[in-house]
């Protein structure tokens, strides 16, 4: 899919508690967006890096200045996960669309309130699921759509992350704040499963979470897994916070897409002891085994999102899908067996 | 572990219905064993290849000649899976140890009879689980045992297989004959999980089987998956019969062993679009990311098995473990959700 031509929008950021705000802001700026300002409480760890990257963006002392600015079309938030829903709802009520860091919310009550706010305000609420940041995923989806591996049977997603304890604020280890590992980093996996299988819904067949390496933080979960199923395919996903320091990347994210006539493996962030760079795709079909470098593939989410703001479309992601992902992530989290400890 | 010095034994083969009999026979011959003869019913597909590889081994027209030969210490069987238990029991009653192709049996009734026969005859029944044939697994077990990845948290095993329809006899597609995909090729995965986690038992948390690509064979299962759990770790395994023709190997078998302080990936049979050969191990810990070629690692099963025949030891595998693997495989198979169709 070709990236639509960029058209400028005006946006603002509220809540800079996670470093993801760098990418969220930077990608919109690169597409011609203008960030009119940001508001955040106190001095969260990512603040210094934000100021360094974007010294021209002014900080405001009252977030209402951003919410009441009629020229602002979109609000970004990377606040503490449990606070994101309230910020998003406030923004939508003020007439703004919302792009939120993942997870978009941490409770079913928040999700219900977000759904009602979207309906009432006719604004959109978009969660930047990890798929949007991986060019190899764009290419893999194209290949699957073209029938390159026959009928899709199953996906296996691995989402390891580096803990980087020294960079993490206290809320990172508080389950009520980050929402649990399947809510937090598991939502990407659900998004990916639904997208690759073309499913509108899925059954959480089994789920578990555990704390095996961080007993000092009783509330933290460093391991999670889910078995998913829909009418269009099977899925398994594992997430964890164990990435060892000897890996030259924050996480050896993988995706294996199994079809009746071939399979695709993505090494999203690194090809261990192999090729340099990111976005490695391997396609094996009845004819051959091929390596495809996806470094040049599109990541159309941000450009599509801008179009959605301006045109009131749903090209970046359907609103229903966005909600369903968080609904299932919260369901997996709530029903997960608790292991370790 | 050093391979014990080979000591000659005398063995015979009963039932040549699966090509695995080539390797089973060949490895014992290479270690100094003497195959006194074989018996098989009719003209199974692997027979011609067996005669070509081992023209010196005589065929006998009555299997009792082998069973009543007091110099024969070990009986091999790669009969049709549902017939293996009866052959094994007959052999043990005749005073022989047994090495059987996997799966070792196809029903819980057979398994019970095998357990009783082992107890009564004091002979052993050994199933050649796939782990024994992969040198990289030997090396990975050593590394895990040395604490190379910290506390073991989880294993993920992928066991794709090429269907090779033109080589398969009718029984291959009959569920009562091959036992179902989780019994047949799933037992390797259970063996691997129990071994890596050091577990004596496991819970089959969830299992499913499906037929997504072979609707003409209603009894066939071309997909299976299991979620496993024990007090020592979590496990997920997927098996299938979809290996596409463009892969230069029968199956891209993988194992990922996740620890709190590192992880190991095995590319057992092939490194897609990568290094030549088999037995590729990648170790990532807090210090570095390393590739380890395990082509030279030991595969001690056969030498240990010969020692077990001669010394009445259990060095190749404990009898309890061998039974437990098939017990769990049959349990997974029996409880699996049936998908596709």
Write up what this structure looks like.
The structure is a homodimer of 341-residue chains. Chain A is α/β, with parallel strands linked by helices. The first copy, chain A, is 32% helix and 25% strand. Chain A has eleven helices and 14 strands. The first copy, chain A, has a nine-stranded mixed β-sheet, covered by helices on one side. The longest helix of chain A is centred in the last third of the chain and has 17 residues. The mean pLDDT of chain A is 96. At the A-B interface, strand 6, strand 7, strand 8, strand 9 and strand 10 of A face strand 6, strand 7, strand 8, strand 9 and strand 10 of B.
Between the first and last Cα atoms of chain A, what is the distance in angstroms?
Answer: 46 Å
> Structural class, from secondary structure content of chain A?
alpha/beta
Order of SSEs of chain A: EHEHHEHEHEHEHHHEEEEEEEHHE
Largest sheet of chain A: 9 strands, mixed
- Look at the structure and name the CATH superfamily of the largest domain in chain A: Dihydrodipicolinate Reductase, domain 2
Number of domains of chain A: 2
Q: How does CATH name the architecture of the largest domain in chain A?
A: 2-Layer Sandwich
CATH overall fold name of the largest domain in chain A: Dihydrodipicolinate Reductase, domain 2
- Can you list the strand order of the major beta sheet of chain A? 13-12-11-10-6-9-8-7-14
What is the helix tally of chain A?
11
Q: What is the gyration radius of chain A calculated from CA atoms? A: 19 Å
Q: Oligomeric status of the shown chains?
A: homodimer
The level of helicity of chain A is: 25-40%
Largest interface: A-B, 51 and 51 residues
| β-strand amount of chain A | 25-35%
CATH class of the largest domain in chain A: Alpha Beta
Number of strands of chain A: 14
| Unreliable residue runs of chain A | none
The best one-word shape of chain A is globular
Report the mean per-residue pLDDT of chain A as an integer.
96
